């Protein structure tokens, strides 16, 4: 018997009250800004960077790169302009955790940004926020003003001699801006195609200066790690290798579609059956996207997989953003994949050919299969397109788009074949 | 119709003069023009270029990239209906069809009274409240045909007030 939802340790959502936003007084009541005071009065930047590394904090934006390692590449001691950028473009279908965090408790991000800026010695930080999140942007504007008035932001923070300013940048749409180098072009006011890497942002980033880009949830974890230590943070996870809690956004055919803070390493079955309340209407679980639109499907055979980076890679998928989208037994996986590919094709920035031209071909093939007009040659062509796009695009967008296609080819080849054999979608009612 | 009030033009002019990279204000300035004028005509592009001291093409290449910058006239309120996977699993297609029927327009069109423009959009980050839509900068969900009726009536009342 797994614990009830209320018994999961709450770190990022501990102050969360549905429909309300915690302001600075409420935030301080539960220990807000004590980590910042500790960081500025007792710790030096290198110690803070080391804490993140020892806590095994991994990026929450989808790629899961260890934050401490990313920070260790950063030339914190190099004089001159440097930037910290927080990525709140959150636009991958199925992902809405950063919005829930910023709606509930925006000061966590502000405190995390200031401590991280101190750790990296970047006096200027940008929070890049997507167009659809005006509610969050307004919360951040207010939190920045409150933190400034309280002396946590601005010149000579707490007498440390360190200055920090935070700019909230409102964007205007397009998924590609979640790619960190496209985001940097967007911040600079240039056409936001991705940049060639290397040089990596840590060497040449925003305005050509060393820059670190971190996700909202990643930075929001930093104050808690500073307050409670690396061992405590690692102990929050259910797996030995894992660390921390994770914000899971549940969606699709579940009884409860909401955002929950759960331990890293929680089995998929527990998320679906206990937290999500099971599949809607008493139906059967068919598949899910475990971590957003770009992660290969898991099937019922994988329900016991612990939701953490390595265990999900071992079963051919990815942890991604932990946006779990569930499909019941009435779902046609060809139709679902077609929906996903249409998203990626439309959001392609058009910079490279495999993405700009390849994704529409994949969408065309899936549509042909779904509408019952395909032959087995079309399934072969789908496999060819998959091979030709994978690993050949300029950035990770098309690579991510191939995630659900990989899941479709690996787990649902018979369903693809049935479309051809029957000359119609076998799951659509006649 | 005026593109941007003089005090806002002055705000961008002085801010651009005070910072090292005035071009970083291009989205803010385009959004200001759009918020005031409803959409961004060619004159809006040249105005933003002049305010920031950059080339019109440098503004245009940005303006045409973002789907939430409107380079063609739109209604007083733009309805963005999510057509991504989570809304798809929860009858988002039916809601989009209902909106087309109710407003009597196809995607990309504007109602005859000039109030609503209907557009599809990718995921709005409201996956737990699917199916969802955004009108202006406000997100609504979960939607049913009845809820859509109520929201449209409420927004129409706001627009005519």
Describe this structure as you would to a colleague:
- The complex is a heterodimer of chains A (430) and B (161).
- Chain A is α/β, with parallel strands linked by helices and 430 residues long.
- Chain A has 18 helices and nine strands.
- Chain A has helices at residues 24-29, 34-42, 45-54, 67-72, 97-104, 107-120, 134-149, 180-188, 216-228, 230-235, 268-275, 309-314, 333-347, 353-356, 358-370, 376-389, 396-411, 413-422, and strands at residues 83-88, 124-129, 165-170, 211-215, 245-252, 259-263, 285-289, 298-299, 323-328.
- In chain A, strand 2, helix 7 and strand 3 (165-170) form a beta-alpha-beta unit.
- The mean pLDDT of chain A is 97.
- Chain B is α+β, with helices and mostly antiparallel strands.
- Chain B contains seven helices and four strands, in the order ααααβααβββα.
- Chain B has helices at 6-18, 26-37, 42-52, 56-63, 85-89, 92-103, 145-160, and strands at 77-82, 116-121, 133-135, 138-140.
- The longest helix of chain B is centred in the C-terminal third of the chain and has 16 residues, at 145-160.
- The mean pLDDT of chain B is 97.
- The chains are: A alpha/beta (430), B alpha+beta (161).
